[in-house]
């Protein structure tokens, strides 16, 4: 016989694919095996046994139906029969074995119905087609690759230790609490009274080993390697979902093969029902071979007819069951929404509420998985959840960034606070909150940061910097920051990065905001009211405002420092400045101002004013600064100022004056009537001459005229004996007066880029001046006496 295993290749698929075979596919596979056995059995009988046995049939001697030759032949046979001995019985045909074989073959080919001849082969072919069709979507290149990837990921997700941990922890269940509950239940079950029966005692005893298993530390601990593997799985699932949800080839392939099986079932039932009666035992055969055998009519017996008839009825029954199963499959395919899959039951059962619904082929495969075991979908859903992924990232982050590693990154920032800076991490490590000595936390380009309640452990935390970070706060964390945070720096690109909770920081003293703001809510991000910030003293805005927003006016009663850097956008409306009477420092940088705003002259408490990088050409309004009695620092640098008006002499309280990077050509002598000046920067202008009145500035400590066109220095300059820094570089100087020796406190002298041929030996009298503080060409330095050089080189 032909072994059935030879046909295994027609229905063979990978063992892992069984999860995509619902009960009806498994059932029809078994039906196909039975039908295949029927076909193989029938074919084997056809090959090994005689198909048909025929005997000649005598004809009557009537002249109408018998030719002369036939009559003579029959008469001859009859005479021979009469001459035979009486003891012989039956009819003698005078046919040998070869003639019988020939007759059997002829009658089998001509008289036997084709259905009776080829029934086993039809069964075999139809069954093979069924088997191939049932597994075609596993073999088709367009669908098999997706199935293989899906099955591979499904198995890894099912076996991943993270799946078990996520189902317990992400859903809000604490494994330790579950253990306590189980242990409590076990104790209560064990401590039953004798009257409660032995059933509860048995149940309590069974619960003991379960508790022991759960309490294993390894069950809730995820090592670094397992965490990395789970992280890779999240990425694979995410990419696979995007790829598979684009099409529905798997669904279409399965529908088509199911429809084909239904059509084939109807075809088999129709033609088999009509032809099954053609399988008969006795067959009349008429073959024109009288000249070879002497007979024309034969009576034949189909030896397999009875068996084939039974097998055909059995086959029809199996096909009918197969077809009904395929019809049920068709009903399931067309009357259920298989291109959409909802994880609602998983969300309700696990508490992971962000598991998304899926569609198309992804949804169809999950529906198929549910027919095998819904547990697969439940465990697979963990890797579709962002909450679960973030929890895993957090765990991996904690493994990578230990408290010891973070402690090594602590530095002291310019505000003399102990600071930790974290840049471009996937999240915020929980270990940060173990650094109880931390005073400043700086986070840069970190998305989806959640500050937990454990931030309350950082009792010394006073400063927080968020640069392009989207941050969420736990309720307890919000309360903690409201009470403790003193300094907040935020750099944002969109509304998500500008935290709403900052408006409630009632103890905040300094707020620095960098990003695009607008007073119009329809255009851009709006700065809401700062009214709750009762302690705010410093506000810095690096933005693109056209007017000072009302939210700043809300804190005008206690605001002392206002810094506006406007990125070149013209600041038009400045009337709100008048309401900030307590300002002591004001910066209006890159605001495209063409004149000094009149609103500034109302700020009587102002001590420092910075108008850097505007379009100031004339500063005649400087006369009004005489009302600002407390003004000590005026910065008008990086503008286009052509001259300094003589009204500058009215600003007798000035101590620091910045006129660098302008277009000033002439220094008025009135400038030096500001005799309190300690810092004067006139670098990067077109100045050719320094008036001798500079000697009046006896408090001058810093003087810079770098990058000008000065050819000579007045001797009166060296009467400013408190000078510590003198910058004369990149001018046209050729001689340095020996009176430089008067500057005994000089620590920094810049002479580079001039036309000096030698340096005066009187530089040796500047005892505080060292080689590191003398900016001069080496060749020029060598012109000094050796003892002076040695003195400067000595530390």
Automatic annotation (TrEMBL):
<feature type="transmembrane region" description="Helical">
    <location>
        <begin position="30"/>
        <end position="48"/>
    </location>
</feature>
<dbReference type="InterPro" id="IPR001611">
    <property type="entry name" value="Leu-rich_rpt"/>
</dbReference>
<feature type="transmembrane region" description="Helical">
    <location>
        <begin position="258"/>
        <end position="276"/>
    </location>
</feature>
<dbReference type="GO" id="GO:0005737">
    <property type="term" value="C:cytoplasm"/>
</dbReference>
<keyword id="KW-0677">Repeat</keyword>
<dbReference type="GO" id="GO:0005886">
    <property type="term" value="C:plasma membrane"/>
</dbReference>
<feature type="transmembrane region" description="Helical">
    <location>
        <begin position="313"/>
        <end position="334"/>
    </location>
</feature>
<feature type="domain" description="LRRC8 pannexin-like TM region">
    <location>
        <begin position="1"/>
        <end position="329"/>
    </location>
</feature>
<dbReference type="Pfam" id="PF12534">
    <property type="entry name" value="Pannexin_like"/>
</dbReference>
<protein>
    <submittedName>
        <fullName>Volume-regulated anion channel subunit LRRC8C-like</fullName>
    </submittedName>
</protein>
<dbReference type="InterPro" id="IPR021040">
    <property type="entry name" value="LRRC8_Pannexin-like"/>
</dbReference>
<keyword id="KW-0472">Membrane</keyword>
<dbReference type="InterPro" id="IPR032675">
    <property type="entry name" value="LRR_dom_sf"/>
</dbReference>
<keyword id="KW-1003">Cell membrane</keyword>
<keyword id="KW-0812">Transmembrane</keyword>
<keyword id="KW-0813">Transport</keyword>
<dbReference type="GO" id="GO:0034220">
    <property type="term" value="P:monoatomic ion transmembrane transport"/>
</dbReference>
<feature type="transmembrane region" description="Helical">
    <location>
        <begin position="118"/>
        <end position="138"/>
    </location>
</feature>
<keyword id="KW-0433">Leucine-rich repeat</keyword>
<comment type="similarity">
    <text>Belongs to the LRRC8 family.</text>
</comment>
<keyword id="KW-1133">Transmembrane helix</keyword>
<keyword id="KW-0406">Ion transport</keyword>
<dbReference type="InterPro" id="IPR003591">
    <property type="entry name" value="Leu-rich_rpt_typical-subtyp"/>
</dbReference>
<keyword id="KW-0407">Ion channel</keyword>
<dbReference type="Pfam" id="PF13855">
    <property type="entry name" value="LRR_8"/>
</dbReference>
<dbReference type="Pfam" id="PF00560">
    <property type="entry name" value="LRR_1"/>
</dbReference>
<feature type="region of interest" description="Disordered">
    <location>
        <begin position="169"/>
        <end position="204"/>
    </location>
</feature>
<dbReference type="InterPro" id="IPR050216">
    <property type="entry name" value="LRR_domain-containing"/>
</dbReference>
<keyword id="KW-1015">Disulfide bond</keyword>
